[in-house]
């Protein structure tokens, strides 16, 4: 999907283009064409994107308004002692913000590819605990939000229309999320799913389900139920400093994988110093518990009381004591 799909979904006319108009040299061309074609406003009651002068001539100028937000992200990660492998602009290949969500999350480009046409989307929650890797352009991300929005949610609202209309529904959803998370009896799976859904962008769940359904059918047999439930909502990325692989590998991105020929260690994630997975030699998938291997290969630790969901919940709650 590209910018023309978004324009068509919104019922707008595509602007005429001049030859050699300079688009795509600094930021992706599809984004600049969306800026030209779309009026300011809120898309699917969830997405707002930057409105620079186009074509963009300089990344420092483009990111100037978001510099404080980037500083907040870096400080949040340092305070929690969470590592996030991709760096931020102005580091080479660093992530560049291109928009935000109605719930104060951030939309960024992964700029590791030198060709702007191949920059993909990273979506965060407002607390910078969840980082969703979405290997799609800004246009495809917006198109998926439009196609996945619930019935009755407007495709595009002016800021005034949003504040008088959808804002109140979003506020109700935010309160409902906070109430659910405040329940001391909430289960680990429900807590994580509630946090992911709380990001509030339609289309993400549908994309995660596509990845999971295809990978499980093609490559894997039975897997733990808590893992399947969470990965139906989470397409891969970073959870509280731990990179959780997408179920299916992508170019330059590992997926769920066996680390040994005997299939005794199934890896689902990593940090710079550790590889995380399950020891699968005994029992059914519901009996699998978390283990991790030092990058050096010198030690293996089995967390016999931790499932995928309980382990990630501890991390989300600020407990970094298990490794």
Plain-language structure description:
With 323 residues, the protein is of the alpha+beta class. It has two domains: 157 residues, no CATH class; 114 residues, no CATH class. It is 34% helix and 18% strand. It has eleven helices and 14 strands. The strands form two sheets. Strands 2, 3, 4, 5, 6, 8, 9, 10, 11, 12, 13 and 14 form a twelve-stranded antiparallel sheet that branches. The chain has a two-stranded antiparallel ribbon with strand order 1-7. Strand 5 and strand 6 form a beta hairpin. Helix 1 runs parallel beside helix 5 and helix 8 packs across helix 11. The mean pLDDT is 90. It comes from Streptomyces argenteolus. This is SUKH superfamily protein.
Give me a quick take on this structure.
The protein is an alpha+beta fold and 323 residues long. Helix content is 34%, strand content 18%. Strand 5 (120-124) and strand 6 form a beta hairpin.
Mean pLDDT figure: 90
Any idea what the radius of gyration is?
A: 20 Å
- Provide the structure class: alpha+beta
Largest sheet: 12 strands, antiparallel
Features:
two-stranded antiparallel sheet; alpha+beta; 323 residues; single chain; SUKH superfamily protein; 14 strands; twelve-stranded antiparallel β-sheet
């Amino acid at each position: 999907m590209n910018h023309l799909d978004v324009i068509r979904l919104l019922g707008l006319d595509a602007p005429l283009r001049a030859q050699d108009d300079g688009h795509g040299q600094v930021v992706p061309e599809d984004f600049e064409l969306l800026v030209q074609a779309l009026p300011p406003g809120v898309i699917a009651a969830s997405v707002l994107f930057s409105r620079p002068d186009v074509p963009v001539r300089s990344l420092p100028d483009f990111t100037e308004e978001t510099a404080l937000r980037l500083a907040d992200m870096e400080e949040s990660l340092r305070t929690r002692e969470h590592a996030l492998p991709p760096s931020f602009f102005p580091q080479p290949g660093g992530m560049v913000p291109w928009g935000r969500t109605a719930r104060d999350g951030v939309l960024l480009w992964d700029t590791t590819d030198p060709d702007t046409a191949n920059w993909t989307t990273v979506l965060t929650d407002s607390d910078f605990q969840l980082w969703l890797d979405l290997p799609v352009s800004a246009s495809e991300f917006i198109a998926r939000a439009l196609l996945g929005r619930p019935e009755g949610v407007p495709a595009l609202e002016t800021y005034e229309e949003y504040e008088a209309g959808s804002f109140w529904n979003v506020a109700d959803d935010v309160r409902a999320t906070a109430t659910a998370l405040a329940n001391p009896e909430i289960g680990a799976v429900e807590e994580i799913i509630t946090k992911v859904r709380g990001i509030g962008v339609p289309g993400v769940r549908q994309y995660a389900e596509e990845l999971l359904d295809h990978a499980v059918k093609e490559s894997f047999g039975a897997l733990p139920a808590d893992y399947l439930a969470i990965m139906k909502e989470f397409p891969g990325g970073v959870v509280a400093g731990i990179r959780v692989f997408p179920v299916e590998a992508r170019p330059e991105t590992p997926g769920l994988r066996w680390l040994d020929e005997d299939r005794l260690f199934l890896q689902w994630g990593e940090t710079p110093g550790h590889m995380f997975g399950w020891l699968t030699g005994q029992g059914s998938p519901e009996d699998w518990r978390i283990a991790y291997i030092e990058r050096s290969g010198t030690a293996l630790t089995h967390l016999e009381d931790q499932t995928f969901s309980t382990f990630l919940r501890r991390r989300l709650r600020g407990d970094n004591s298990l490794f």
